[in-house]
Design brief:
This is 2-succinyl-6-hydroxy-2, 4-cyclohexadiene-1-carboxylate synthase. By secondary structure, the chain is α/β, with parallel strands linked by helices. Helix content is 44%, strand content 16%. It has 2 domains: 193 residues, Rossmann fold; 58 residues, no CATH class. The chain has a 7-stranded mixed β-sheet, sandwiched between helices.
């Protein structure tokens, strides 16, 4: 399906960059990063399907395909890609499928579970145990509780009761996006793991994670590091999964160093 894609720009630097946010956020989540990079880049950030002011996904077909097609339409010239979590998996897919349009790829904790689980199948059992509270809440139809448990595992550590009601409702209204992402994130619906498709992403890649992140995230990054042809890895101290939002200046500094080295 074709959706309205809402986007906004941050910074006025000469580099053209495309930013893709994480699940349950919106393009404004990348404002801190865009402002911090503002002298170097103009960061075009878009809202994922059913997020922010983009159109609502009709829950038909594959939502990762829809999100990727939205990004594909915005790559009208070679750009630097920056993605966080789910958004990083979209950036990764674009880099593999459209390498001629990607100058560099930056990913912070891409949640591409399929790669790690191919390398270490025992991770399925670990993830299922960690995800059981979310799965139970979602199956029962309690979307608010599902959002709470998801936020507990992937949020910035803020207590649920301290999050404004409007933001909690925003997350609950979009929590269906999480299980809908599974065909790509867990089962590689785009067949990126087939053959040697990662070799197509020849551009320089910066792969980051926080030192407070989960064992699953560590495993994912390790799996991608061995597959990508030109990758450098960075571990950000005193940071977790939401570092592009909570530690935007530090993440921007790492990206600046990366770009300067190209």
């Amino acid at each position: 399906m074709t959706l309205h894609t809402h986007s906004r720009s941050f910074g006025q630097g000469p580099r053209k960059a495309l930013g893709i946010h994480c699940t349950l956020a919106h393009s404004g989540a990348l404002k801190g990063l865009g402002v911090a990079l503002g002298d170097q880049a103009t960061l075009l950030a878009y809202d994922l399907p059913s997020h922010g002011q983009s159109g609502d996904w009709d829950r038909k077909g594959n939502v990762h395909d829809v999100a990727t097609d939205m990004g594909r339409a915005l790559l009208t010239e070679p750009m630097d890609l920056i993605g966080h979590s789910f958004g990083a998996t979209v950036a990764m897919r674009l880099a593999i499928e459209m390498p001629e349009m990607v100058r560099s790829l930056t990913m912070f904790e891409p949640v591409y579970f399929a790669a790690a689980m191919e390398d270490a199948p025992a991770l399925w059992e670990t993830y299922d145990a960690q995800n059981s509270a979310f799965a139970d809440a979602y199956a029962s139809g309690d979307m608010m509780e599902a959002a709470r448990t998801f936020n507990r595992g992937w949020g910035d550590g803020t207590k649920w009761d301290a999050i404004p009601d409007t933001l909690r409702q925003y997350m609950a209204d979009r929590i269906h996006f999480v299980p809908a992402s599974a065909p790509f994130l867990f089962h590689d619906s785009a067949n990126l793991l087939a053959g040697n498709r990662f070799a197509q992403a020849m551009m320089p890649t910066l792969l980051m994670r926080g030192d407070q992140s989960s064992d699953t995230t560590i495993a994912i990054n390790a799996s991608l590091e061995k597959r990508l042809p030109d990758v450098r890895s960075v571990v950000v101290e005193r940071a977790g999964h939401m570092a592009p939002i909570t530690h935007a200046k530090r993440i921007a500094a790492e990206i600046s160093k990366f770009w300067a080295s190209l």
